[in-house]
Amino acid sequence: MTLQPVSDGVDFLARHLGPNRTETEDMLGVVGYDSLDALVDAALPEAIRQENAPELPAALSEHVAQARLKEMASKNVVLKSFYGQGYSDTITPPVIRRGVVEDAGWYTAYTPYQPEISQGRLEALLNYQTMIQELTGLPIANASLLDEASAVAEAVGLMSRSVKKGRRVILDERLHPQVLAVAAERARAIELEVEITDVTSGLVGEDLVGVVVAYPGTEGDIVDPTKVIEDIHSRGGLAAVATDPLSLLLLKSPGSLGADIVVGNSQRFGVPLFFGGPHAAYMSVTDKLKRQIPGRLVGVSIDADGRPAYRLALQTREQHIRRERATSNICTAQALLATTASMYAVYHGPEGLKRIAERVHGLARSFAASVPGVKHGQFFDTVAVTAEGRAQEIVDKAAEAGYLLRAIDADTVGVSFGESATADDVAALAALFGAQETVEGEGVLTGVVKRDDAALTHPIFSQIHSETQMMRYIRMLGDKDLALDRTMIPLGSCTMKLNPTAGMETITWPEFANIHPFAPDSQTAGWRELIEELEEWLAQITGYAKVSVQPNAGSQGELAGLLAIRRYHVANGDTQRDVCLIPASAHGTNAASAVLANLRVVVVATAEDGSIDLADLDEKIAKHGEQLAAIMITYPSTHGVFEDTVREVCKKVHDAGGQVYVDGANMNAMAGLAKPGEFGGDVSHLNLHKTFTIPHGGGGPGVGPVGVGAHLIPYLPADPLSTDPSAELPGDVGVPVTSTKYGSAGVLQIPWSYIAMTGAEGQANATAHAILGANYLAARLRDAFPVLYTGKNGLVGHECILDLRALTDASGVTAADVCKRLIDYGFHAPTLAFPVAGTLMVEPTESEDRDELERFIEAMLSIRAEIQEIIDGKVAYEESVIRFAPYTAHVIAGDDWEHPFTREQAAFPVTSLRQRPKYFTPVRRIDEAYGDRNLVCSCPPPEAFEFDTDSADELEDVARDTSDVPGRKGAGANAGDPTK
Predict the structure, then answer these.
(1) Which Gene Ontology terms cover its molecular function (predicted)?
(2) Is the distance from CB of 359 to CB of 441 less than 8 angstroms?
């Protein structure tokens, strides 16, 4: 395949690639090569080059690709969904759909690791946490999990870590079937004994880590869980409750009933069905469990002026630090969907949400009062109706009438009411069961389970009364942030490339978005055709025999791949193979995923050039050969280098009987040029939110498909609804990892579009331009900031590591200082301190044009000059412009200016900043440590933002005072104790 600079034109590839033909040629000249082919030949080891190009269809134009998607969408049958089972009909307010889900400022934002430029998305996520805390009645909630089934699995893991002596977990048989399937197998993977039973009849036995109770159950029935919770507590275990958040507007909060953990899915808060996802699950916990809660946690700290500021709390739990000791392997959350759900709550407010809940419940009551055979007396939105031997017949009749119902079993039909349901629907549905007319149902939520306290009491949920206000609130938060719609996000290892609008806008088409994940195949032909094509294309690009898109994040793809390896060994009788070799430079999720797959982590050293230390690898293989299950390697390496020993590494592991896991996070440097399945990989996950253009959305959605060699196909993730959770699966099949067969299917149109619009040549061209961009930056910056690692011919892969350690020693300026100063130049920071402390890892991607790269280079060289002034003794670090960065508009315009440098130098250090709208961060540098010592993870009251300066003590008082706010009890209980 010959790689050529693209012609300026209207094809998608020309729109996707940043540099045009002239810019590409100029950049090649700077790097020292006369063609893209020559550069790629020099950078990639010959041993990894693919044998044949992927067999992909010819590239389509954007218009034709959308027409093809429209054709597939038309094959789906959209019925009014009354199916339930954890997925509910909901209405996304148009102002939120257009303002958040379809707005590039929100969907292209990155995970808020640089909090000063992420205050808008952090506020939205803090609203989400506060919403969950108040609804569930527990003081700490995370900023979203991946789906309800894996959230329950995380709850089981949390209970196991907390109650170390127990080895049994009890799952309520009333949980949704997909929840039981995933949670049971995840528990068994970490060697917990699983019992699925009717918990309402009492608990039996000891040695329990905990119980998971459904509230309501999958048939809609509501049972007071208080007795079960008291029973498990008396045995030393913990109680987790799986619940529907809308029901908690009417039901007593699980926290008030004694629950330790509450989990669920916030999908019905305005997030479309999306054929199964992405949806934001949640977890809330008691104060004593806050240090072990998985996933991300948004907290409140203070900035340099003492003003409240948001940031991710307890970041020492991040996997790249704790690795195999991490609380979970979760790296990608569902931030965009959590933001959508939180905006839904802000828009409707507590009274509006309660009206929706009461209306849904009222319609369910009317239906139940009109039909014979209702199974349960207490329910919220789901009515189970006995119809002996006729369940499927009724479901089929309903489909003909335009309704999707659930056949719970041969004798029971489930009818679950959602937000768009009407009285006419009640009449039509009742008629299917032989009812002549409908009657008004009497109130059934009575007694102990009826909520008697207010929810969503924080003022943020009562301030928005009109669409105008909502539109402006969304815009106000978005304006606080830096996302890809404003600037390059040069994050190494995270591939913040263009998210093609031609694919993005299709995800909210009703024919895709309004399909229930458990709709029968007769209604989902278009979805399945799209998914089958995408899986085949990904298999072609990676060189694997088969791909499954079920994992809904890279972390879940890792877990699925490692579980496949583990089950393969067990099926072959090699039960002793439980050691996973992981290079010291690997992504942190690798080690955490290995632990969840019940593998023992053994670290392999890194050589001086950043590659795997082959001598140390030999020693580890010699020591653990009989126990060796796998090695996990990232390629190109986490150091941004194409290691020429990768085939040798794979062979050594294979010769010892192990399998090779190739982490696909850096596939952006290989797609179209090299296939991990050909150069030694047995399994890989892919990050579709990186290489294949699903947007990051402020920290999710992500999709992490897993590809495997032919021998591992039987162990790919199983359909959770075809899995018997009551018995451990046989060793020769795979296990489900998410709630639905196709995971976060609702965003798969995006990678489908990207591949369809590029084809094999376009994929290779995009990869070549990514390599060119990284080497161009390396060439332009290496005199000012040494490039730490290079590979063949002194070249890097698709990213490069800039080494600031010598500059730090000479000046006191840290890599973190440079990140903060870059904000004043209008840039998101590169990856900080990973994989090497004191460095910055930069990845420009193929989507940035030369002018944007030059703007970043100008900023870095300007900062380098500021550092040199400190080195030369012209200014002390403590008084330097870098030390106080970033600068807010309030500081620049304020009367109080005592710095030796000018306001202009602080805010407009280079002339080009005057030629475009200036971004000002809304807060000054944030005190990270303060926020962990004084953990506040819900929205502070409005008076907290009235502080002037020296207000840290006042914020601490606010943290304590919030303990009296309903739903946030205990949020500041440890505010003054730095040991907590």
Answers:
(1) glycine binding; glycine dehydrogenase (decarboxylating) activity; pyridoxal phosphate binding
(2) no
pLDDT of residue 773 exceeding 60: yes
Identify the band that residue 729 occupies on the pLDDT scale cut at 50, 70 and 90: confident
**pTM greater than the 0.85 cutoff:** yes
Nearby residues of 818 by Cβ (< 8 Å), 6 or more positions away: 804, 829, 840, 860, 863, 882
Could you give the dihedral angle defined by the CA atoms of residues 783, 785, 790 and 795, in that order, rounded to the nearest 10 degrees?
-50
Residue 961 reports pLDDT greater than 50: no
**Distance separating alpha carbons of residues 952 and 622, to the nearest angstrom:** 55
List Cα–Cα distances, 198 to 201, 227, 745, 918, in angstroms.
6, 13, 33, 61
- The kind and range of the H/E element at 384 are strand 382-386
Give CA separation, 5 vs 753, 772, 846, in Å.
Answer: 22, 11, 12
Is residue 54 pLDDT above 60, yes or no? Answer: yes
DSSP letter at 610? S
CA distance 525 to 73: 9
Give which of 888, 896, 895, 970 is closest to 924, Cα–Cα: 888
Contact 309, 888 (CB under 8 A): no
Show the tokens assigned to 298.
């948004």
Residue with tokens 């498990």: 232
Instruction: Give the tens place of pLDDT for each residue, 399-417.
Output: 999 999 999 999 999 999 9
Burial class (CB in 10 A: 0-12, 13-18, 19+), 205: exposed
DSSP symbols for 456-521: --SGGGGS--SHHHHHHHHHHHHHT---TTTS---BTTT------HHHHGGGG-HHHHT--TT--G
CA distances from 413 to 200, 223, 430 (A): 23, 20, 12
CB 531, CB 742: distance < 8 Å: yes
Q: What is the pLDDT of residues 328-384, one digit of tens each?
A: 778 889 999 999 999 999 999 999 999 999 999 999 999 999 999 999 999 999 999
Dihedral (CA of 300, 302, 303, 306) sign: positive
pLDDT in tens, 133-162: 999 999 999 999 999 999 999 999 999 999
Above 80 in pLDDT, residue 9?
Answer: no
Give the separation between CA 51 and CA 48, rounded to whole angstroms: 9
Mean pLDDT of 74-82: 98
Q: Domain for residue 58, yes or no?
A: no
Q: How far apart are CA 782 and CA 905, in angstroms?
A: 25
Q: Do β-strands 193-197 and 168-172 pair in parallel, antiparallel, or remain unpaired?
A: parallel
Please check whether residue 78 lies inside any domain of the structure.
no
DSSP string of 36-82?
A: HHHHHHHHS-GGGB-SS----PPPPPHHHHHHHHHHHHTTB---EE-
Q: Which phi and psi angles does 802 have, rounded to 5°?
A: -95, 125
In-domain check, residue 210? no
Q: Which amino acid is at 315?
A: Q
- The domain in which residue 725 lies consists of 524-747
In a domain, 717, yes or no: yes
For 626-642, b/e burial (b = at least 16 CB within 10 A) is: ebbbbbbbbbbbbbbbb
Provide the number of structural domains found in the chain. Answer: 1
887: left (phi over 0), alpha (psi -120 to 50) or beta: beta
- Here the CATH number for the domain that contains residue 733 is 3.40.640.10
Residue 218 has pLDDT above 70, yes or no: yes
Helical H segments across 190-313, by residue range? 226-234
Q: Looking at residue 329, what is its pLDDT?
A: 78
Reported as a pLDDT band with limits 50, 70 and 90, residue 2 is low
How many whole angstroms separate alpha carbon 67 and alpha carbon 73?
10
Q: Which amino acid, one-letter code, is at 467?
A: E
pLDDT of 130 reads 97
Helices 21-31 and 850-871 cross at an angle (nearest 10°) of: 40
> Which region, left, alpha or beta, applies to residue 816 given φ > 0 means left and ψ of -120 to 50 means alpha?
alpha
Cross-strand pairs, 27: none
